[in-house]
Design brief:
4 copies of one chain form a homotetramer. By secondary structure, chain A is mostly helical. In chain A, 68% of the residues lie in helices and 0% in strands. In chain A, helix 1 (12-35) packs across helix 4 and helix 7 runs antiparallel to helix 8. The structure holds a DNA duplex (21 and 21 nucleotides).
DNA sequence: AATGAATGAGAGTTCATTCAT
DNA sequence: TATGAATGAACTCTCATTCAT
C-alpha cells in the first residue's frame, strides 16, 4: 500500500542474501590476500565472516568457486577497458601505453578499496599480495599483450621472450607502485612504458 | 671388525646420518617441485623418503626448515660466482651481463638435475615451478642488482623501479628459457641483457 | 470469484494441503525405494518434491514419520482384504492360500505402480527393495498367520518356528516373484502354498 | 639375555597393535549389530573403542573395510565346514541337513561369544540383529544351496523359488532359535530340515 | 638414532531443523 | 501456510607431531 508501484520491492531476505554473499566475497578476498590461495581454507573464510559453517555452502560450492567468482568480478569490471584496447587501430606504442596505464589504474583502484593490513613479516616468500581480481586482470593484460605482439609480425626476434619481458615489467613495477604513498599511476606508467619500448627497440631485428 | 684400524673413518652412524639428511633433502626438492611449497606436506616428503615419520624430525623441525635448508644449499653453491661478481670493478653493463648469465646458468643446471614432471594444467597461477634453490639464487641476484644500481648513483631516475624491472625480466625470461628444448642459456642471456640495458638507456636522466 | 457459490467446495488451501501431503508421500516412497530407509535423507525427499525445505515439517516431523505414514497407507488399503480373511471360517489350507495370494497380489500391484529403478549393485545385503507399504502389509500377514497358527491348537509342534517358516517363504518367494517378467502371482502363490502346506505336513505331531 | 632364544619375541608395540586392531573389530561388530550397517558411523566405532579418531585409519581405510574384515573373518572360520560339505557325495537330504546344521551351529557360537544386549524396542524394522560374520556365513550357505539345487537337475519345478524357500526357512528359523534359551541347535535343525525336505517333496515334478 | 603407531586438531562437507519473512 | 537461508552439530578423513620402544 505504501509502496510505490514501479519500484521493485526488495524483501529483507533478499537484502541479507546479498549482504552475506558480499561478506563472503570480502572475507575471501582478504583471506586469499593474507594467506595465499593454497594456504587459505574455506573455514578461514567462514570465520572471518561470522556466519555459520554451513552458510558458506549456500553460496559457493568450494574454495575454487569463490576464487573464480572474485576473479570473474575483476575481469568483468576490467573488460570494457580491455575491449576498447583490442578494437582500435592503435600503434604498438600506443597500445602498450594504454594497456599498462589501464592495468595500473585498475590495481591502484583495487588497492585503494581494499587497504589490507598485511602483517609486517612476510610469512613466506611465495605468498603474493594480490587479490584474485588483480590476478585475473593481470592475466587479461598478459594475453592481450602476447596476442598483440604475436599478431604484429613484429620485426623483433623472439616474440615469446618479448612478451614475457613486457609482462614482467608491468607486473613488478605495478607491485612496487602499490607500495608507495601516494600511489602515482602516471609515473609508474611512464616508467614501465619507456622501459618496455626502449628495451624492445634495442633488440636485434629478426632474421629474414 | 672389518674396518681397517689405522685409517680414520667415518662411523656407520655418521654415514647414515649424512645419507638420511641427504635423502630427505632430495625427497623434499622433488616434492616441492611437484606439488609447490604450499601444497606439499611433511608426509609427502617422508613418504618419498622411505624413512619413518619420526626420523624426519631428527633432522628438520618443519617443512619450512627443509625448505630453508634447500634454499641455503642453492645459495651456498651459487655464492662463489656471486662473490666474484660483487668484488671486481665491472662496468654496469658487464655486471648485468655476468649476473644474468650466472643466474641462467645456475637454473638451467638445476633443472637439468631435477627434471621435474609437472602436471599439465597449472592448478593456480601463483604456483611457480622453481626449486627452493632457484628461488634462493634468484633472491641473491635480485639483491646484488638492487645494490649495484643503488650504489652507482645511477644517472637514471628511480633506481627502485629500475631494479624491479631488471629482476622481473631476468626471472621471467629465465622461466621461459627453462621451458624450451634445448635450453639455450646464451641466447636467453643475450636477450635479457639487451632488453635490460637498452631499456634503461631509454629512461630519462634523474633531475639533478 | 470464479467459484460457484452454492456448491460446497474445498478451498484452495485445502487442495494444496492435500496435494503437498501427497507429493511428499510420493517422493518419500520413491526415495525409500531407491536409497533404502537408512540411506535416505529428508533432504532427498524434499528435493524430489520441489517444495521448500520448511514445508516438509508442516506435514511430518521426521523421516520416521513419513515412513510410518506410508506404511499405514499400505496397511489401510490392505485392511479390508485381511479382514475378510480373519473373519470367515476357512480351513487352515484355505486360509494360507488366501493370505499368500492376497499378499502377492498386493506387492505385485505396488511394484507395478512404482517401478523403481534400483542401481544394479546392491550396496549392502541388508537393503531390501520394498516400499514401506509392502513392509507394513508383510507385517500384517505375518501377524495373521502367527495368530491363526497359534489359535488352531495346531497338532504340529512348535508353532513359533512354523509361523517363522511360513512367513519366510512368503516373503522370499514374493521378492523373487517381483524380479521376474511377467509377474506371475498365481504361479508364485501356487508354489509358496504348496511348499508351506506340505512342509508343515511333514512335521512331527506335537507330543500330547 | 633372559629370553629363551627359540621363542619369537613380541615387542610391546606389536602387542598393542594387535590389541587395537582387535578392539576396533570388536567395537565395529557391536556397532554394526546395534545400529545396522548403514546407520553405523566410523565415529561410533572409534568412540566405543576409546582410541583417538585418527587411529582408526591406521588399521582400516573405511567403514566398508572393517565390515569386510569382519565378514571375511566369519567366512574364513566357516570355510572348512563348508568345504567338507561341497566335496563329498552326499545325497540332497544329507547335504541340506549338514548345511543347515553347520549354519545353525555357527551362528549359535557367534551369538554365544557376543551376547549383545539389544535395547528392547527395535529402533527400526529394517535393522537386523546379525553380525557381519553371520551375514557372510549366511551368504555362503545360500550360495551352496542354490548351487546344489541347480546342479542336481532337480526333478522339481522352479529351482529358483526352491532355493529361495530353503534359504528363507534357514535364516528365519535360525533367527528365532537365537532368541530362545537355551539355544537348541539340534532341535532347530531338525525342524528346518524337515520343513524344507517335506516341503520340497510336495512340489509338482517339473514338466518333462 | 630410527621407528611407526597414537594422538587430536582441524579441514571439507552434509544434514535436520528452525524461523523470519 | 509456504518459503528457503541460516544454523551448528556431526561426519569422514588427513596431517603434524610426539614418544615408547
Amino acid at each position: 500500500m505504501s509502496q510505490v508501484a514501479y519500484l521493485p520491492t526488495v524483501g529483507k531476505r533478499e537484502q541479507t542474501k546479498v549482504a552475506n554473499r558480499q561478506s563472503i566475497l570480502d572475507a575471501a578476498r582478504e583471506v586469499f590476500g593474507d594467506l595465499g590461495y593454497e594456504t587459505a581454507t574455506v573455514r578461514d573464510i567462514i570465520r572471518r565472516t561470522g556466519l555459520a559453517a554451513g552458510t558458506f555452502y549456500n553460496y559457493y560450492r568450494s574454495k575454487e568457486e569463490v576464487f573464480a567468482a572474485l576473479a570473474d568480478d575483476g575481469a568483468r569490471r576490467f573488460a570494457p577497458i580491455l575491449k576498447s584496447l583490442r578494437n582500435r587501430g592503435y600503434s604498438f606504442e600506443e597500445f602498450v601505453h594504454r594497456a599498462i596505464s589501464a592495468y595500473f589504474g585498475f590495481i591502484a583502484e583495487e588497492q585503494r578499496t581494499w587497504i589490507e593490513r598485511r602483517p609486517a613479516g612476510e610469512p613466506h616468500p611465495h605468498v603474493r599480495g594480490e587479490t584474485p581480481e588483480m590476478a585475473a586482470v593481470f592475466a587479461e593484460i598478459r594475453d592481450a599483450l602476447s596476442e598483440d605482439i604475436a599478431e604484429r609480425k613484429s620485426p623483433f626476434s623472439d616474440p615469446d621472450y618479448m612478451a614475457a619481458s613486457c609482462i614482467a615489467i608491468a607486473r613488478d613495477v605495478g607491485d612496487k607502485m602499490l607500495e608507495r604513498r601516494p600511489i602515482d599511476t602516471a609515473g609508474a606508467t611512464e616508467f614501465a612504458v619507456t622501459m618496455i619500448l626502449s628495451g624492445l627497440k634495442g633488440l636485434p631485428k629478426a632474421k629474414s
